[in-house]
Amino acid sequence: MTVIGRTRTRGVETLTLDSPHTRNALSATLVGELADALAECAKDGDVRAVVLAHTGSTFSAGADLREPPDPDAFVGLLRQIVELPKPVLARVTGHVRAGGLGLLAACDLPVAAPTATFAFTEVRIGVAPAVISLTLLPRTDPRALARHYLTGERFDAAEAVRTGLLTAVGDDVDAVLEGMLEGVRRSSPQGLAETKRLLTVRVLEAFDRDAADLTALSARLFASAQAREGMTAFLERRDPSWAL
Fold this sequence. Notes:
Elements: E1 4-9, E2 12-17, H1 28-43, E3 49-54, E4 58-60, H2 71-83, E5 88-92, E6 95-97, H3 99-106, E7 109-112, E8 117-119, H4 133-136, H5 142-151, E9 155-156, H6 157-163, E10 168-169, H7 173-185, H8 189-199, H9 201-222, H10 225-235
Parallel strand pairs: 2-3, 3-5, 4-6, 5-7, 6-8, 7-10
Antiparallel strand pairs: 1-2, 8-9
């Protein structure tokens, strides 16, 4: 069963994360299907822009602890979004957690409804937001990010805009997106590709410099005793042993 839906309207390909029973967790299957769909969009001259959307109440709950993706595959997916020579927008009407925030930060123009919530929950299960820092650190306010990384607190869409995680928040998400998409449709493919290249230089520098080290850090942490306790506690819906 496919977990990525696809529709196209006037040159805009919408890729929908469609695994609501897992809260669109980043499984090996979802990461692989999304990477394949993006590769097709990159080669298709009729696609002017891509929108990442979701079904259910959650854009993405982060890594699927039961079917985790290969770390290198997830890094590849994030880089694929950043390098895609077409704008990638995001339509968020639900919640975003952990690795899902890295996916969101990879997008060029993420937009959310006021009801959306966000949280970096990694520290609460004994790991760190390592790989997703590739897209987050170059694009967000460092002081705000420090608070959210270190506390795991939930924050709202207005705060996400202030920190640079989101481009905009609006009661009518589709209206906000449509305004942006109309601008994209009036722009030349070459102009869009080269402008996006200018905007993503720092992000790609982070991939070139840090991807291997952060992937290794992520693997080491997920294999640790504290992470095993944290993930077990999460799946058993209880506090981990270190909670005070």
